[in-house]
Structure formats: structure tokens, C-alpha cells
Write a structure and sequence with these properties.
The complex is a heterodimer of chains A (793) and B (328). With 793 residues, chain A is of the alpha+beta class. Chain A has 20 helices and 41 strands. Chain A folds into 6 domains: 2-39 and 155-187, Phenylalanyl-tRNA Synthetase, Chain B, domain 1 (2-Layer Sandwich), CATH 3.30.56; 46-152, Nucleic acid-binding proteins (OB fold (Dihydrolipoamide Acetyltransferase, E2P)), CATH 2.40.50.140; 207-414, Phenylalanyl-trna Synthetase, Chain B, domain 3 (Phenylalanyl-tRNA Synthetase, Chain B, domain 3, 3-Layer(bba) Sandwich); 423-491, Phenylalanyl-tRNA Synthetase, Chain B, domain 1 (2-Layer Sandwich); 511-686, 2-Layer Sandwich (BirA Bifunctional Protein, domain 2), CATH 3.30.930.10; 705-792, Alpha-Beta Plaits (2-Layer Sandwich), CATH 3.30.70. In chain A, 24% of the residues lie in helices and 27% in strands. In chain A, strand 3 and strand 4 (63-69) form a beta hairpin. Chain B contains 11 helices and 10 strands. Chain B has helices spanning 2-11, 15-26, 31-37, 44-83, 102-116, 130-133, 166-174, 215-230, 277-283, 297-305, 318-321; strands at 94-95, 120-121, 127-128, 159-160, 179-188, 200-210, 235-241, 246-257, 264-275, 289-296. In chain B, strand 8 (246-257) and strand 9 form a beta hairpin. The longest helix of chain B is centred in the N-terminal third of the chain and has 40 residues, at 44-83. The chains are: A alpha+beta (793), B alpha+beta (328). Strand 33 of chain A pairs antiparallel with strand 1 (94-95) of chain B.
Chain lengths: 793, 328
């Protein structure tokens, strides 16, 4: 919302400095995003009439224009499409500097014709952006005068309006807040004594039928006759431009002005477009279409509210709507007007619609048709329902002033204003909730300055009726905020509540896990929760089960079902890096949302540039998990298990404390190739991973006895199987059984391998005799032979 | 004879050669031993004198042998040390240093601060529904406030949470006041992506509910956080604003010294306010008040650590990730 400081001053009189104004508005919750300094017309530019326009003798599309600026006359060459005799515009005499062009204009020859300066467009003058040709001025601008005298520079505040402050989408709402805060008196243009509200009992030849009073609780239509459509006076063009709009003609500019000034949108129809003077507010029919002012052809929905007029006039009887059959939509209520029925250059009688539309319906329609208009923006937030009659009178008065129109004495008003319910308010609650000490008298004065009606029902029991324009005030807390806002949030002190609350311990952000991996040399990545179905497919991850309806491209169209594809993508991005250790903690979205950690390893783990490092293989990757498990006091076990994305013979299911939590393995070479990677290892585990508090076991007092045994087993028999089988028969004193060598090669024969095992035995209370240990080993050897394995000696 | 022997001893190049010299002089057939054997043929007087002489010679040689032995040992140690010389300037053999993601570091720093202040840290789902993300937080359907949070909807009618606030609803439904919680987590907005806007980012939000929690308590909490992050004397500013789930609502800023420019200025961080009665109603609370405040972690990370492009945080480029090492 752009607020010209000059327009604010017209409502409030003398204002503080711009800096103070900005600070005050910030403190009121109407934050100023930017302070714009709009330039005025450049010095030296004169208001001039075009008294002759002829084609350039030697250039198609150019004209030679004779201009008269008071006593001075000159000829200029002009390329504007709207140059015509009788137009009043801006002449830039030679020697004038146009800052917007960064140029001083000189007299020069244009294809053999001398041009004394130029005629300027609004954009060339730096006034507003418009491609349509020369600046068009009205009768108020005196030919020969300096345009800068009428069109000076202006300071404009760019306000950010929060969705609740519907009232502040008009200058009036901003002025009301400032008046209440700074104790200024407000000149409200909608409350001027001079306004002629019109007499609802006088018939002006227009009929309004509101078929949906829920969606359109209030509708006014005013006939303004004898309007001369033309350029707006400079003050109005300037004001409209300061609001960030493009001046068009006096009628449109006035309705736009009031939209921004009072926050009340309106629409002006050519009376001739209203068949039989009849205007209807109804739901759209299925299949009904509307061509809008913006020249979009809309397919309407039966939920859309439209302004309509009968297809053809009924004979005689004005109220014979039903008899004429159908009606056609000429506007989308509260959003945008139709293409052919609004004011045209030759319009003389205007039918002015100023209505109140229910916000939710307007919002639905605007969203459905993807329209964003100044009208819809205000209606969807909630325009003051009591405003239409006064806004209509304000527009009528302005049209009288700038377009020579005469408002009809009658006015059509349909519907009534429902007052918002009063709010029960306890002034003591201000201090209770905010700790601000504001006396009851002051609170009352503040609320009244904001337009509330305060009725004191009892001790600390008020009834506060909010003003019609503050549709956001509905509960006691809203009023507390109003008092606090006017008093100033800066006065709120700091305190610390004394709460009987002891936070439970826990690690919901998996800090211990992240710390462990980081200490182990891993870099943490964070990738997107959304990804592409194709990326998931090339990673052989489960297909997406959650799909976004309006994604930012196909690569972000679904929610990820696994984390490792993101790590593979990161590895692909970092293909120049030989050694990578990455991890991510994040959420995946399969049948349900799960939190996981994923790891990626490739290249080397121990690195020096001048020495061979430790190449990552399956066991290096497994070691990372083992170290993690050891740190967490958990038991880790890996079992061969296939997974689509992993190498069929280098893939394992990970059991953490006996619970299957995920997989570890070498990425399937085909998947790796799809990500332009070589040998790569990934793990992905469900979180949380159980962590156990350490418990101290007494140190053993007895020595252990150690025996080694090499067993040759067929490929396919895992170490875990062998250990399980042998440990089961090794007797009660076995304390560990670990491999100390694994050999495959000629000596053991193809399809077999030798596992050298180290057994340790210990008795808790006494030393073991050699014979006892030998007896245990004898059982072990027998079991191994019985299983068909060869013992290597 | 002594001089001859000493010369041989002193010129022995190593322990082995020295041993040979020892054998040659003092061994069973050594020259000194041979001379001792000649003593038996001498007269007693002569024998005494000659004996004394040979013993003196023998002692002198023993001493010389010991000395030479020590010399050689010392030289051997020196030679060994020399062989063990390393070039300390060559690079070390090492695992790479890991790093927490910058956003995790910011999150950890903040959760540490809040734990110290007595808050519980909780997390919640990223895939949410309209009820938790909007309705229960007092965003009625078709409310323009929803436009401020462009939403990613899913084909099954759910949504990616647009803020961490749905966790307010979830936590309050499962717990009774009083409590103090903070919720860090990922949030999503369907907005155009540029150097300062991402479709995915992180928030941290605090919620405190009790019998009488005031706006001053809220300011105190924000101030405590500011002081913990930016040092004593840090000031805060509250300005009214609107969020559907709080009333009154405010924006908060922190007066700080920008680490890069050295300029003192207001850092507008996030939103805050007193929990709206409709939110309490949605979770079945009565007779309590509370405050909530929240802010984006990316912005804090970017201004604190000089990240110019928010997208760098999500690309996974290790050349960026490695720079996050050592950040406190």
C-alpha cells in the first residue's frame, strides 16, 4: 500500500517529519517497507496545446506538431500515436534536462525537419510508467505554465499491510491510526458535510436486484449524468500515479482514487450498457462466460458472483426481469468488470456501483480465476460494510468536480448494514496479559479514538462496540492489542516466568549421532525433501507415495522415499572429489513419515597425498557402523540381504540391538553408473538408534587361554554361521571367537576359503588346565569335521 | 707395545673390529696373555716387576677398550637416529575432518541455549494436514493470511508444513501446562527461489504456556536468547504485527553488530505473540496464557556467517560443506 505523504497531510494537517512518521507507523504495526521520493515534472517543461498536427514529409509514423505554450509557439517532430490537434500535453523546449532519460534535450533536425525540443510521455518525464504516448493534460493545466509548478515531487511511504488490517488498505485507515496515536484531528473525506448521499426514495431509472444477499449484503447504484470523459486534472493524475497506478481518464481515476483513499472499490458502468437500467447480482450459470476488462475470457463457475444485466429490454415494465428470459454477466462481483460495459470515451451517463461483498466468496472467485485486482485484494480482507453510501457520495462529488457530472438526487440502496457484536472487555486484562500499566480512563480514550463505542457495564466490565471499519476486532485480546499498540510495545518490560517445569532429557535432534559421524570425518549434507520420480527410479529407491500438486518442476515433484539418492546426487555433483564421506539426517515419506540417517563412503578414508591411503571397501564402511554401535553401547550385526539399489553380493541388513534398522552395502554398479559414480558404499538406517548408558563390569582376575584353528569352508558359509556353529560346542568358558586371517587361493582350492580362528577361554574363578582347554577344542574340531569342513594344520 | 695396542683400539671402526682387537691383545692367545705366560721363566724379583708392568698394561687396555666401546655405542645410536630422520613438513596421513551442516550448527547452538533456559526440545512431522498447519492455528479456510504462506499441497490433500507451529497443536494436545518447549525443523513454502528464498528452509519456534504468562515474559525469553547468542547488553525490539495464531502479535528484532560490516543495526528476526484463545480452544485449554515466537535459521546463518546465496546451503557441494568446519 503506497501512502503519499501529501495525501496523508490533507487528512491530518501538520505531520511530523518523515523519519518520525516511519517510526510511528512501524510502532503501530503498519511497517514502512520503503520511503520513495517520487520526482516531480522536470523544470523547464511547459504545458502546451497541440494546434497543428501534420505527417512528417519524409518519415512514416512521425508527425510534425505545432505547439503553443502561452506566448511561445514552436514545431516539434513527434512519434507518439496520440498526437492530435486540441491535445494538451507537455512540451520540452530545447535546453531542458529530462533526468528520467539522463539527457538534455536540444533542437535538432529529424529527417530534414527541425524539431524545437520534444513532446514528452509520462515515462520520459519520470512521472509514471505508460507506453501509450504523450502525457495528456486536462483543462486545469494552464498552457504556457511550468508543469513542475503543478506536478511537484512527492514522498510516498510503501506500507506492508498485514492481512488483518483491511481498513489500512485505504489511506483513511492509516490516517485514523496516526490520528489516534498522535492525537491529531482527522478530516475524513467520506464524512464531509458537503457530501450528497442521495435520496433512496427517489427513483433514478435504475433497478438493482440482489439475488444472493449473503454474498452481497449491500449494494448501491448511483446515476451520474452528463459526465464528460476526458483527462484528469493534474492533481488527480499525480495522486493516482503516487498510488502506483496509471492515470487513464477522469472517471476511472476517480474510482481508483477512492479505492486507495477510502479502501472502497467501486465500478462505473455506462448506463447504456444496463439493459432497461436493470442490474442484477446473482450467481453465475454453468457454462457462462465473461470477457473481463483485462481481456481474459473466463469460464465462470456457479460459485462465482456476477453483476448482470438482462439480455434484452422488457417492453415497458421496468421490473419484468423474469419476463426477458436470461441476463448476461457484465462483471465479476468484487473482482473485475467486464470488457464492454464499463465507461467509454463517449459515455455521458454513469451508473456507479459501490457495494459490499462477502470476503470468502470474493476470495474463492479470485483464486479460481487466478485474478489479483485492487478490488479483490480489499474485499477478501473485509471492506467497511457501512462505507458504500458515503464512498458513493464521495465519488459522485469528485465526478462533479473533475468530469462535470451531475449526480441524480436519487440513489438505489439494497441491503442493510449489520453491526458487529460488541466485545466484553476487562480493562484489567491489559496489565494481566501485557504488564503495561494503562489507566482505565486512558484505555477508554484510546479505544474511542480508534472509533470504538465504549459502554461501562460495571467494575472492570466494559462492552466495546468496534467501528464498522475494524472487521478484525472480535475478541478481548484484539482490544488488548489495540491498547498496547497505541501505548507502545516498546514499553513492555522483560521478565522470566517462574514455571514448575523440568524439561525431560532426550536427543530428538540426534545430536549424539551427528557428533559421532562428524568426529569420524563425515560431512553433513541437507538435501531437499522433494525430489523427482526419475531420480528415485534411477537410484532404485521405492517409488514415491506422496506427490505434490503444484511442484516447482518435475525434479521437485514428489517426496523422497529414501535419503541415499540425495547422497548419490551429492556425490555426482562432487564427482571431482576422489574421497567422500557424507551423511544426512532427515525424513523420508513412504507409507508413513520416518526419520533416518544415511551415509555415503567412497574413495579413501585415510589419506595423505604422497602415500597410499586406506581404500574404502565394504569392511571400511561396516567399521563405521561398528564404531558407532560401540560408541552407543549397542550390538551390531550384519546379515546378507538383497536390496534393489545394492550389489547383490555386497549388501547387508543392519541389525542394531537385534532389530533390523536398515541396509549397508556397495551401491549396485548399475545404480552407481546412473549417478556417474564408481565403487560407492551407502547405508541407510531408521532413527532413533538405541543408545545405552554404560555399565561397568568388574575386570577379570583370571588369565585367558588362547587356541588357534584354521577351518576351510565352502564359499557361501559365512563367518557368522561358522562362529555360531563352533561357539555352540566350545563349552562354557569360551569368551571370544574372532577371525585373524581369511585366505582364499590355490592352497585351499577353488570355491573354498580358509578362516583362521582365535578362541579364548577363561574361567571366572580359577585357571583352566591345558587339558580342559584341549577338551573344548576337541569338541570344536569334531563339530567342524562333522559339518564337512576341513581343518587346516 | 702400549702405544701400538692403543692405536689399534682407537682405530677399530665398529664393535666387531674392536672385539677382534680385544682378542688379539687380551684373548687367550692374545699378545698380553702370551706375555703373561712368559712370567714363569723369570726370577722372582723380575717376575714381580714384569707382572706389575703387564697388569698395568692390561688395565690400560681394558680402560681403552671400554672407552672405545662407549664411543662406538654412542656413534651407533647417533647413526640409528640419523636413519630415523623424518621430513616433518610432509603432509600427515589422516581421515578427513568432518563437519556439521551450518544449519545444524545454528540449530544446535540455539537448542543448547534453550535447554539451558529450561526448555524441552521437541520435533514433529514435516508432512502435515490442513488442521494442524492452519485450522487449529486459527487460519480459517479461505483466509487471506493463508496467502502469506504459499503451500505445497499433496495429491492426497495433505501439505508440507509451512511453519513449525503445527507442533504447538500436537504438543499441547499431548501435554498439560505449564511447559516451555522449542521446536526446530524444516518447513516449506511454494515461493520463487532466489538468493534469499528457498522452497525449503528451517525454523525454530518456542512455546511457553502457564497460568499467567505475559508479554513481558515473552520479551524476557527473546532477550535471554539474544544475550546468549550475541552477548550481554543485546537489546530487543517488539513491533505489532499479525499472525492468526497469536493476539497480540509482534515482530521482534535484535540490536546487534553485524559481524561483517561492523555496523550496529536492528536485525529483524521473526514473529512472536501471545497464543490466540482460538488456538487454546482448539487444544482444549482453558484459563492459561502463553507466548510463542519463531524465526528462520537460514537468515540467522546467512547474516552470521556471510552466506550470500541460500541455495549454497542445500547443494551439497563439499567445497562449501568443508568450510562449515570449525564454525562455533
Amino acid at each position: 500500500m503506497r501512502v503519499p505523504v501529501g495525501a496523508l497531510a490533507e487528512m491530518l494537517g501538520e505531520l511530523p517529519s518523515v523519519d518520525e512518521l516511519v517510526a510511528t507507523l512501524d510502532g503501530l504495526g503498519l511497517p514502512v517497507d520503503a520511503v520513495l521520493e517520487l520526482p516531480g515534472a522536470p523544470r523547464g517543461v511547459l504545458v502546451a496545446d497541440l494546434i497543428d498536427v501534420r505527417p512528417h514529409p519524409d518519415a512514416v509514423g512521425l508527425t510534425v506538431v505545432r505547439v503553443r505554450a502561452g506566448e511561445r509557439e514552436a514545431e516539434v517532430v513527434c512519434g507518439a500515436p496520440n498526437a492530435r490537434v486540441g491535445l494538451r500535453s507537455a512540451w520540452v523546449p530545447p535546453g531542458t534536462t529530462l533526468p528520467a532519460l539522463g539527457e538534455t534535450i536540444a533542437a535538432r533536425e529529424v529527417r530534414g525537419v527541425r524539431s524545437e525540443g520534444m513532446l514528452a510521455s509520462p515515462r520520459e518525464l519520470g512521472l509514471f510508467d505508460h507506453q501509450g504516448g504523450l502525457l495528456v493534460l486536462g483543462d486545469d493545466a494552464r498552457a504556457g505554465s511550468e508543469l513542475a509548478d503543478a506536478w511537484g515531487p512527492e514522498t510516498v511511504l510503501e506500507l506492508e499491510i498485514t492481512p488483518n488490517r483491511a481498513d489500512a488498505t485505504g489511506l483513511l485507515g492509516v490516517a485514523r491510526d496516526l490520528a489516534a496515536k498522535l492525537l491529531l484531528s482527522l478530516r475524513d473525506p467520506s464524512r464531509s458535510e458537503a457530501l450528497d448521499l442521495g435520496d433512496p426514495d427517489v427513483f433514478d431509472g435504475l433497478h438493482v436486484e440482489v439475488a444472493d444477499p449473503e454474498r452481497c449484503p449491500r449494494f448501491t447504484l448511483r446515476r451520474i449524468e452528463g459526465v464528460r470523459v476526458g483527462p484528469s486534472p493534474v492533481w488527480l493524475q499525480r495522486r493516482v500515479a503516487a498510488f502506483g497506478l496509471r492515470p487513464r481518464n477522469n472517471v476511472v481515476d476517480v474510482t481508483n482514487l477512492v479505492t486507495f483513499e477510502l479502501g472502497q472499490p467501486s465500478h462505473a458502468y455506462d448506463v447504456r450498457a444496463l439493459t432497461g437500467g436493470v442490474l442484477q447480482v446473482r450467481r453465475a450459470r454453468a457454462e457462462e462466460r465473461l470477457r473481463t476488462l483485462g481481456d481474459d475470457e473466463l469460464a465462470l463457475d456457479p460459485d462465482d458472483l456476477v453483476i448482470a444485466t438482462p439480455e434484452r429490454a422488457a417492453d415497458g415494465a421496468p421490473h419484468a426481469l423474469a419476463a426477458v428470459g436470461g441476463s448476461r454477466a457484465i462483471g465479476l462481483a468484487g473482482v473485475i468488470g467486464g470488457a464492454g460495459d464499463s465507461v467509454r470515451d463517449d459515455t455521458s451517463d454513469v451508473a456507479l456501483e459501490v457495494a459490499h461483498f462477502e470476503p470468502v466468496g470474493v476470495r474463492r472467485t479470485a483464486r479460481r480465476h487466478k485474478l489479483h485486482t485492487d478490488a479483490h485484494y480489499r474485499f477478501e480482507r473485509g471492506v467497511d460494510p457501512a462505507l458504500p453510501e458515503r464512498a458513493s457520495a464521495r465519488i459522485a462529488a469528485l465526478l462533479t468536480e473533475v468530469a462535470g457530472g451531475t449526480p441524480h438526487t436519487g440513489v438505489t440502496v439494497v441491503g442493510t448494514v449489520r453491526a458487529a457484536p460488541a466485545i466484553d472487555f476487562r480493562p484489567s486484562r491489559v496489565a494481566w496479559l501485557t504488564t503495561l500499566e494503562v489507566s482505565a480512563d486512558t484505555q477508554r480514550a484510546m479505544l474511542e479514538r480508534l472509533g470504538c463505542r465504549v459502554t461501562i457495564a460495571g467494575d472492570d466490565a466494559w462492552s466495546v462496540a468496534p467501528p464498522s471499519w475494524r472487521v478484525d476486532l472480535g475478541i478481548e485480546e484484539d482490544l488488548i492489542e489495540e491498547v498496547a499498540r497505541l501505548h507502545g510495545f516498546e514499553h513492555i518490560a522483560s521478565s522470566v516466568p517462574n514455571l514448575a517445569f523440568v524439561p525431560p532429557a532426550g536427543d530428538p535432534t540426534h545430536r549424539a549421532l551427528r557428533d559421532a559421524l562428524v568426529e569420524n570425518g563425515f560431512l553433513e549434507t541437507i538435501s531437499y525433501a522433494f525430489t523427482g520420480a526419475a531420480e528415485l527410479a534411477s537410484a532404485r529407491a521405492p517409488a514415491a507415495s506422496v506427490v505434490l500438486t503444484e511442484p516447482q518442476g518435475v525434479e521437485r515433484a514428489v517426496l523422497r522415499t529414501a535419503l541415499y539418492p540425495g547422497l548419490l546426487a551429492a556425490a555426482r555433483l562432487n564427482h571431482a572429489e576422489r574421497d567422500l564421506a557424507l551423511f544426512e539426517v532427515g525424513r523420508v515419506f513412504g507409507a508413513e513419515e520416518r526419520e533416518r540417517v544415511a551415509l555415503l563412503l567412497r574413495g579413501r578414508r585415510l589419506v595423505a597425498p604422497w602415500r597410499a591411503g586406506l581404500e574404502v571397501d565394504f569392511f571400511v564402511a561396516k567399521g563405521v557402523l561398528e564404531q558407532l554401535a560401540e560408541r552407543f553401547g549397542a550390538a551390531l550385526e550384519l546379515r546378507p540381504a538383497a536390496a534393489d539399489h545394492l550389489h547383490p553380493h555386497a549388501a547387508a541388513e543392519v541389525l542394531w540391538d537385534g532389530r533390523a534398522v536398515g541396509q549397508l552395502g556397495r551401491v549396485h554398479p548399475e545404480v552407481a553408473a546412473a549417478f556417474e559414480l564408481g565403487e560407492t558404499f551407502v547405508a541407510e538406517l531408521e532413527l532413533p538408534l538405541a543408545l545405552h548408558a554404560p555399565a561397568l563390569t568388574p575386570l577379570p582376575r583370571q588369565p585367558f587361554a588362547e587356541r588357534d584353528l584354521a577351518v576351510i569352508v565352502p564359499q557361501g558359509v559365512t563367518f557368522a554361521e561358522l562362529r555360531g556353529a563352533l561357539a555352540a560346542v566350545a563349552g562354557p568358558w569360551l569368551i571370544s571367537l574372532e577371525p585373524f586371517d581369511v585366505y582364499e587361493g590355490e592352497q585351499v582350492g577353488a570355491g573354498r576359503r580358509s578362516l583362521a580362528l582365535r578362541f579364548r577361554f577363561r574361567h571366572a574363578e580359577r585357571s583352566l588346565a591345558d587339558a580342559e582347554v584341549e577338551a573344548c577344542m576337541k569338541e570344536v574340531m569334531q563339530a567342524a569335521r562333522a559339518a564337512g569342513y576341513t581343518l587346516r594344520t | 707395545m702400549l702405544d701400538e695396542a692403543l692405536a689399534e683400539i682407537r682405530s677399530a671402526p665398529d664393535a666387531r673390529a674392536l672385539q677382534q682387537v680385544r682378542v688379539a691383545w687380551l684373548g687367550r692367545k692374545g699378545r698380553v696373555t702370551e706375555r703373561l705366560k712368559t712370567l714363569g721363566g723369570l726370577a722372582p724379583e723380575e717376575r714381580r716387576a714384569a707382572g706389575a708392568e703387564i697388569n698395568a698394561l692390561k688395565q690400560a687396555l681394558e680402560q681403552a677398550f671400554d672407552e672405545r666401546e662407549r664411543e662406538l655405542e654412542a656413534a651407533a645410536v647417533q647413526a640409528q637416529l640419523e636413519r630415523e630422520r623424518v621430513d616433518v613438513t610432509l603432509p600427515g596421513l589422516r581421515p578427513a575432518a568432518g563437519a556439521h551442516h551450518l544449519l545444524s550448527q545454528v540449530m544446535h547452538k540455539l537448542t543448547d541455549v534453550f535447554r539451558t533456559l529450561g526448555y524441552e526440545v521437541v520435533v514433529g512431522p514435516e508432512l502435515e494436514d490442513d488442521h494442524h498447519n492452519f485450522e487449529a492455528l486459527n487460519f480459517p479456510p479461505e483466509h487471506p493470511a493463508r496467502d502469506t504462506q504459499d503451500t505445497f499441497w499433496t495429491s492426497d490433500g495433505r501439505l508440507l508444513r509451512t511453519h513449525t507451529s503445527p507442533m504447538q497443536v500436537r504438543y499441547m494436545r499431548d501435554h498439560r501446562p505449564p511447559f516451555k518447549v522449542v521446536v526446530p525443523g524444516k518447513v516449506f513454502r511454494n515461493e520463487a527461489v532466489d538468493t534469499t528464498h528457498e522452497a525449503q528452509f528451517h525454523q525454530l519456534e518456542a512455546l511457553v504456556v502457564g497460568e499467567r504468562i505475559t508479554m513481558a515474559d515473552m520479551r524476557g525469553a527473546i532477550e535471554a536468547m539474544a544475550v546468549a547468542l550475541f552477548g550481554p547488553g543485546t537489546r530487543t525490539r517488539l513491533q505489532p504485527t499479525f499472525f492468526p495464531f497469536v493476539e497480540p502479535g509482534a515482530e521482534f528484532a535484535i540490536w546487534w553488530t553485524h559481524p561483517k560490516t561492523g555496523k550496529e543495526e536492528w536485525l529483524e528476526l521473526g514473529g512472536c505473540g501471545m497464543v490466540h484463545p482460538n488456538v487454546f480452544r482448539a487444544v482444549g485449554y482453558e484459563g492459561v496464557t502463553g507466548f510463542a515466537f519463531g524465526f528462520g535459521l537460514e537468515r540467522m546463518a546467512m547474516v552470521t556467517y556471510g552466506v550470500a546465496d541460500i541455495r549454497d546451503l542445500y547443494r551439497g557441494d563439499v567445497r562449501v560443506l568443508r568450510q562449515f568446519r570449525g564454525v562455533a
